[in-house]
Amino acid sequence: MFTNRKSITGLVILGLFALLAALADVVAPFGPLEKDYTALKQPPSATHWLGTTHLGEDIFSQIAHGTRGVLLVGLTAGVLATLVAVIVGVSAGFLTGWRGESLSALSNVFLVLPAIPLMIIVASQYDDPSLFLISAVLAITGWAWGARVLRAQTMSLRSRDFVQAARANGEPLWRIIAVEMLPNLTAVIASSFVGTVTAAVLGLTTLAFVGVIPITNLNWGTILYWAQQNGAFPEFWWWYVPAGLAIALLGAALSLISFGIDEYVNPRLRSAGERARLQKKRTKRSTA
Amino acid sequence: MRLLLRRAAFYLFTAWAAITINFFLPRMLKGDPVSAYLQKNQGLVSPEAADALRTLFGLDTGKSLAEQYADYWVLLLSGDLGRSFSHGLAPVADVIASALPWTVGLVGIATVLSFLLGTTLGTLVGWFRGGRGDVIVPVATFFSAVPYFWMGLIAIAVFATGLGWFPASHAYGKGTTPEFSAQFIGEVIAHGTLPALTVVLASLGGWVLGMRNMMITVLDEDYVTVAQAKGLSRRRVVFAYAARNAVLPQLSSFALALGFIVGGTLVMELVFSYPGVGKLLLDATNAKDYPLMQGLFLVITLTVLVANLLADVAYAALDPRTRQGEV
User: Which residues form the ABC transmembrane type-1 domain (chain A) (predicted)?
Assistant: First the structure.
């Protein structure tokens, strides 16, 4: 995975965002809410790299500080959702009979429930939801896909010889699951983790844009919320283009990482392009 | 047949679960916005309507939870979802019924279009792998990561306000009344094109990538090689052999992703001020109109469930194995 071009590109972009979040205080020339009433709605310039808002706040500084909220919520939600997905998915794949069936039914129900409306309704019940609460809501609506994939993978592992052998040896159940099976599920778990983080980032920014999350919680979606509320569209492009691009870039980086994992799991995907090119070359040579 | 029964059981179970979640959601609320509202508007709400609201929101504390649940079902089966606070106490069911066709029309058409287009494109990119078409992969990756609402905002800025090709908001012109006439239909199409295009563009990437990966996996199968060796036309090999099999997982992931897609597109309606259920939900949230929020969640979930059912039927039509009984 770490030799794959796609996943390296993704990891580098993700790393840059992480650096931006960690060093926001150093990198950002202004405080995110620092107002400069002499420079309202200014286009990008040497002092304000990405221009200013209607209150003279520096947009680059807002994006740098907003990265923190996005990454923090995205990763927390990803960890929580993956935990639930592993517990439910692996048990659903391992258990037979009604217990396995009902766990699988549970994840199917959560897959069908429309996530964003559910998030909007739950988040709107709280006046001032904390970052952790927001992550938890995103995790509740985001674990089902991973659980489904993990269940399928566990079911195919369950009947393999090495698991049968471990069973015949009388290994306890927790050991079979933790030592024999989990290492074989790592790639699937990693891929579903990346997937949930992507979904959580999109969910968070959507909720912030809609205005369900309090504006004190600064993230990229909040910037877009302010931009729309204060008539930034269409002329003040520097206000709304960078934040949206940042979301898309982070999402693309995460997808690249998960492509890398997919290609690691499915070697056919890895070599598809190269093999086709080789074949073409060979046929050209033979016809020439 | 067994598969059919299993699917039917799944739909019934999910519908039951959605309704039950809807029953418990307001009971987990802090505070009690509904009785506060009833207090404030005493006399305006008829006693029956107030009773219905109390049942829906779990305020009839005199009854046990089981009794409340039974009452709730009776109300639902009679089509009573309570009264909407922000729409002059109009029945929630009526308010939703006026918004639902817009969403189903717009999001439904756009989603199906995007699926068909993306799958076709993915088929071709997968077949011509290693060629120039591979450029589409990074492009599609980027577009599939763009949030719908942001793409909508950009589309309005460029095509509506900038170039003036399309109207920027609403489903039809301000002075027009909905009627069955060429002019009205024309306006609906003109207003719906930009939001629909945005949904298509934002969701296309995912389908292209999914189909491409499935195609590449399928193209390695022996039956594709055999089909080529038999000298079948390329068209036939691509569409009747490779794509025919690659589309099945694509279709089942379409069914499963529906809840996610619909959720994302609802926010689009806010951007375009489109009078669908998404806009209604966000307005209800801002107005703290709890009965409308609950009703909307239920209706949106059930709509997704119906769409899921349709995707399932399409899957069964395409995959003969599901029709052979034992699977």
Answer: 71-258
